[in-house]
Amino acid sequence: MTPTNDTQASAASVESLLARMTLDEKLGQMMQPERMAVTPDDVRTHFLGSILSGGGSCPGDNRPSDWIAMNDAYWAASMSTEGGRTPVPLLYGVDAIHGHANVLGATVFPHNIGLGATGDSELLERIARITAREVLATGVDWTFAPTLAVANDLRWGRTYESYSEDASLVARYASRFVRGLQGDMGRDGVVACAKHWVGDGGTDLGYDQGDTILDEEALTSTHIAPYLPALAEGVLTVMASFNSWNGNKCHGHRYLLTDVLKGRLGFSGFVISDWDGVDYLHEDYATAIAMAVNAGVDMLMVSVEWRACLAHLKQRVVDGTIPMARIDDAVRRILTVKERFGLFGKARPADRYWSQVDCLGAADHRVVAREAVRKSLVLLKNDNAILPLAPGARILVAGRNADNLGHQCGGFTVAWQGTSGNESVPGGTSIWGGIRAAAPGATLSVDGSAASAAAHDVAIVVVGERPYAEGMGDLRGQETIGAGSGAGGKAKRLAPYGDSLSLSVLHPEDLATIRAIRDKGIPVVTVLVSGRPLEVNEELAHSAAFVAAWLPGSEGAGVADALFGTHPFQGTLPFAWPATAEGATYPARRASSLFPLGFGLR
Ligand code: GLC
């Protein structure tokens, strides 16, 4: 792409800024500590270039004003010129991966697996634009989205963060979501982050942060392919992945980070590590840092030990282990992203346009989220066309997930591992709340004990998983996960969700509720709230109708829209549905699926 005048001007301004910066100021730009470990004064004295909120790390009362005040203070410190300090505005990052769901009152969209079921890339761009505005309404500049994982094994705890097992669908969404978030890099845009580079969804046995064992052709066609449209759209940042490729950690993989991503694919933004992802490269922290930076990591996301990280980084530059040219390349990339994002020209966070607009959870945003919910629903069974239901029918609603906003939102909602109950998602509507609005005569009996054929024509039973995130969503035994690093680094061990793909093993209470109601002669419409397809043969057999609702988010009324026929079922499976508990893995699942990729009754 021939640089335009403003590109040349911005490159010149980056070079002149870089030339003025001291070594300490350059190294500070490469650090991204977590907010709980750093004060504005630390930003000023250590020249820090970025800060993040990890999942659930929220300031004050977790209201927009608290977020704006927090980042305004950090930004002001980054712009200090005290003692001849070079002012470089700070970037604040957060996981707004299904709306700005850390923040109380935000619009919480369906997680990516549900968006994959919509097949609607135009809707995705609208969702991304709304998400950008709600992020900006809290004074934040950068979201670690979109996730471009192509999940292979349903036992992976992050399957719900993947749009589909079909790389071409993920690729179709990638550029639209980046465009929705970044826009024209003007007032309404935030910095996007394509993640996790690369092969996060392809690990052996679906182990989170495990080893993706593939030849380069398969890695390229499945896991690298979705990044091409995101890079073409100008995504400004890429996050390195925890997983390994054929035994070598991506965080230390020079070929993948530098030769392929920055060289062959021409990525000119910057690479950020994942959460302490550097630590797992080597038992010696300083060695691990040098491995990551020399491999091509430009910014280091550090949960707590950022002071030690900064000291080791400087030591490794002084002793020549990390060439100064590599530091200048990393800092040039970071400054270029800030320049392209217009950060140097923006007002302080508290004075920016969207900081004055209380649009978090706005009604028009929730309308789009409700549209996404109903378009994401996949109808798997509908015996005797029992659906759509008549609003005047005598309806019993039951099941653990019927009236639980925390469960229907899933992980990365207010807390890293998500929440339970309705109070943590203010402004949201549970699936029960949506049904009651559509059919005022409906009654709720979570355990189904109130069911009686004399009083009820039909039961809607909402079942499935409770929230989880990352490795805590894995379905596996307690065995340790290989570190996957050639240098024998540390391995992360998180307690898994369970060790079966069968809903009747994970939550036998669900089948018990369905059967108890069915045995009273009441037909059951089952709605599954889950982060992935599960083996549900028994539950299906006892249901007259069965709907996959994924993790719908705050607008549960979208489920009633389809159950009562105000809108048709139109969702299609983004993952083939397993016929057995052993059908977790993509090739096997495709060969003997219960319902194929793309299936969905109308
Ligand atoms: C987590 C996730 C990553 C997220 C980051 C910051 O460990 O792997 O997707 O963006 O840390 O929360």
Keywords:
single chain, 602 residues, alpha/beta, TIM Barrel, Rossmann fold, 2 domains, six-stranded mixed sheet, three-stranded parallel sheet, 21 helices, globular, binds alpha-D-glucopyranose
Walk me through the topology.
Layout lengths: L4 H16 L2 H7 L1 E3 L6 H7 L3 E4 L10 H15 L12 E4 L17 H7 L2 H16 L5 E2 L23 H16 L10 E5 L13 E2 L3 H9 L2 H6 L4 E4 L3 E2 L2 E2 L4 H11 L5 E3 L12 H11 L4 E3 L3 H13 L5 H17 L22 H14 L1 E5 L12 E4 L6 H5 L21 H8 L4 E2 L13 E7 L38 H4 L1 H11 L5 E6 L7 H5 L3 E6 L6 H7 L13 E2 L7 H6 L1 E3 L7
Parallel strand pairs: 1-11, 2-3, 3-4, 5-7, 6-8, 7-10, 13-14, 13-15, 15-16, 16-17
Antiparallel strand pairs: 8-9, 12-17, 18-19
The chain binds alpha-D-glucopyranose.
- What gyration radius follows from the Cα positions, in whole Å? 24 Å
Round the mean pLDDT to the nearest integer and report it. Answer: 95
Low-confidence stretches: 482-488
Strand order of the largest sheet: 12-17-16-15-13-14
- Count of folded domains: 2
Oligomer, anyone? Answer: single chain
Tell me about the largest β-sheet: 6 strands, mixed
> Regarding CATH, which class of the largest domain?
Alpha Beta
Question: What share of residues is helical?
Answer: 25-40%
Quick take:
By secondary structure, this protein is of the alpha/beta class. The protein has helices at residues 5-20, 23-29, 40-46, 64-78, 112-118, 121-136, 167-182, 216-224, 227-232, 254-264, 285-295, 306-318, 324-340, 363-376, 405-409, 431-438, 503-506, 508-518, 537-541, 557-563, 586-591, and strands at residues 31-33, 50-53, 91-94, 142-143, 193-197, 211-212, 237-240, 244-245, 248-249, 270-272, 300-302, 378-382, 395-398, 443-444, 458-464, 524-529, 545-550, 577-578, 593-595. A hairpin with a 2-residue loop joins strand 8 (244-245) and strand 9.
